[in-house]
Every structure is written in C-alpha cells, then in structure tokens.
Predict the structure.
Amino acid sequence: MAGLDGPRFGAAPGAARQLVVVLHGLGADGEDLIGLAPDWAAALPEAAFVAPHAPQPCDMAPYGRQWFSLQDRSPDVMAGGVRRAAAALGPLIDAELARFGLPAEALALAGFSQGAMMALFLGLRRQPAPAAILAYSGALLGAEALATEALGRPPVLLVHGEADDVVPVAASRAAERALRAAGIPVEALYRPGLTHGIDGPGLAAGARTLARAFAAPAGA
C-alpha cells in the first residue's frame, strides 16, 4: 500500500469536519461504493468521503481488488490476512486524516463484505476509536481476541440480507453476539429477502448512524 488511492466525494481539505472511509468488497474497487457517499452526505454535509482501492489484485477473479486472499477461508488464515491488511491500512488512514487536518475522532469506517471485515477489525483496534463503524454483509474476524485487543467501543451498525448467499446472515448474527458480549454498542438490521447487497433501508440506517455519531463535536 503506497497510499490511499480511490474515488472521493464531498468536502475538500480545509473544509471537511469528518472523514468517512468506505471499504469495498472482494473483486470490486473503490468505484463500487463511492456511490453511497451522496446519500450519506445529506446527513453529513461537511464530510469528506474516500473509497480506496484495495492493494491486491483479486486472486479469485480476472478483475477487481482484494484486501486479503480468501482462497483459504479457515479462521486462522483469514484472521492473519485481515490483521496484515489492517496494519497497513491504519497508517494510511492516519495520513488521510492529517491531509484533511482532522483529529482521529473525526473518522468513521464503513465497509461491505470483505470491506466490512476490514472496518470491524481495524475500527475496534484503533486508538482513539472511530466515531462509528458501519458493516454491511460482513463478518467479525478475530472475535476471540476482542477482550484483549479492542482499544475502544465505538458504536457499530451491522446490516445484512437474510437471503445473502455469499456471506451468510449468520456471520452478522454471530458478530452481534460477540460485540454485545464485549460491551460494544451495536445496532443490527437484518433485511428479509435481501441477497448480497445494500438496499435503501440499510443505506438510511447508515446515514442515521453517522449523523448520531457526529452530533457532538469530535472529541467531546
């Protein structure tokens, strides 16, 4: 990862009061999710949005990017992959906050599918914690280490389609249980009939979560 690179939307450096980093899923790139920014910007008109492209070419398709390989989906291998990717992405988010002149608390993370795995893993291990984490159709990797590794308890929104045939809804239900057990505030929205995607109610729930998270000045 040489640096954050991907589509952007919203406030420019010097004008932004919040930064929302949006992390795409396996086999996609930043263009796949930056389209969410205009809807969320209605709730956060002073926010900057960036949807970085993941660092690796997807090894399961002839196109798109990945944060880490999913060729081997055993828990230990996936946890190692997300840990390495998060260790590289964290400093780049810090650099992006510095570029906008924002404190660490002015950050929110959002992700879809593999990007949701990234947002949850990294966001729960940042200090200071982000203002909010939005995780769509994802999973909580490294849940067994939360008790010792979580550095904050930011509010988390989980959204998942009950008909998801790519990442089963059971993954978010398990994440909800683990987060509650760790004392992390979590709101979960399970969408009947929705497959692997984001629908209008899920998008609106994200906007509400972001608006609540930044209702008070950063650091207050």
